[in-house]
Specification:
The chain is of the alpha+beta class. It has three domains: 3-44 and 103-209, PH-domain like; 55-99; 215-292, Roll (PH-domain like). Helix content is 33%, strand content 31%. The protein contains five helices and 16 strands. It has a four-stranded antiparallel beta sheet, sandwiched between helices. Strand 11 and strand 12 (238-241) form a beta hairpin. The chain is globular. The protein starts with 13 loop residues before the first helix and ends with a strand.
Length: 295
């Protein structure tokens, strides 16, 4: 067993137990080492994917500005000014490195944002304020999955798992984790993978049967901007019968591409399509040209 799996997850607190009871989640099953975050999708600055991309850019711009100032100061004034200024970008990197999340060591305490509790009928996410947020499966209206392989200079550095659960109103709860799948032992990533599979299974259980029933009744089923029915697929550029779909692919990089005769080409990342497992299951049944290319 890897060191990361030996880190102790505390048992559910009184606040977590109360939240689960009030939400009717049933019996407590187990804990998972997984990160979670609550956000407001109506606020662009509060979206997890936006924050993840904006923070490194700001850091790089700030460090570059400091380094440029140091070089300019050295040329114009001399080393007496340039060397102290040169210490500034390195100081920024040192502070960021000190504040960056670190893998927990065996026996160390986890922060509330680093674990979730699984109950019969949902999740409980501990809060940093001592409270807890219950996420009943029945309250989830959509799920967006984001499985991203990251690399630096062409070399694989890990895979990020993130599952955004829309829970009604204007709130989303994202659960997931980061895993180096090339070097970690199977047990090290088991908790992230198991939780991911549970979220996917619950999504299919919640949304597949109603979608199939709607199609059988001749209705249309929407997945964001794309709409499916028994006759064809509706895209922003138009509607095409299934027999006019020339290509429908789910690529290894997560991109979904649909080419049609008449409605043109449509492409979106799978993370942008709500309830993607249900969407793709229906597409494979309705479209003989559907192909899946996974890593």
């Amino acid at each position: 067993m890897g060191e990361s799996d030996r880190v102790t997850v505390p048992p559910p607190s009184e606040a977590a137990t109360d939240a689960a009871r009030e939400a009717g989640l049933g019996v407590y099953l187990r804990a998972f080492r997984a990160r979670h975050r609550e956000s407001d999708p109506s606020d662009p600055s509060d979206r997890p994917d936006r924050a993840r991309g904006a923070r490194p850019l700001v850091v790089l711009l700030l460090a570059g500005a400091c380094l440029g100032t140091a070089v300019l100061g050295t040329r114009l004034v001399g080393q007496g000014l340039g060397i102290p200024l040169l210490l500034l970008p390195f100081g920024i990197f040192a502070v960021l490195l000190w504040r960056a999340p670190r893998p927990a060591r065996a026996g160390s305490a986890l922060r509330p944002a680093e674990y979730v509790y699984l109950y019969e009928r949902g999740l409980v996410c501990p809060g940093t304020d001592g409270g807890a947020r219950a996420v009943p499966w029945r309250a989830v209206t959509a799920m967006r999955q984001d499985v991203t392989r990251t690399s630096v200079d062409g070399g694989y550095t890990g895979t990020r798992y993130a599952y955004r659960l829309s829970v009604g109103g204007s709130r989303e709860v994202t659960v997931g984790g980061f895993l180096d799948e090339e070097t970690a032992a199977p047990s090290d990533g088991s908790q992230v993978r198991e939780l991911a599979q549970i979220v996917l299974d619950e999504t299919v259980r919640r949304a597949l049967a109603p979608a199939v029933a709607a199609l059988e009744a001749g209705e249309r089923v929407a997945f964001g901007e794309v709409v499916l029915d028994g006759a064809g697929i509706g895209l922003p550029s138009g509607t095409a019968p299934w027999e006019r779909v020339r290509r429908c692919e789910w690529r290894g990089d997560g991109l979904v591409v649909v080419r049609t005769a008449g409605a043109g080409r449509w492409a979106r990342e799978s993370r942008e399509i709500p309830d993607f497992p249900v969407f793709w299951a229906l597409v494979k049944e309705l479209c003989p040209q559907a192909r899946e290319f996974r890593r």
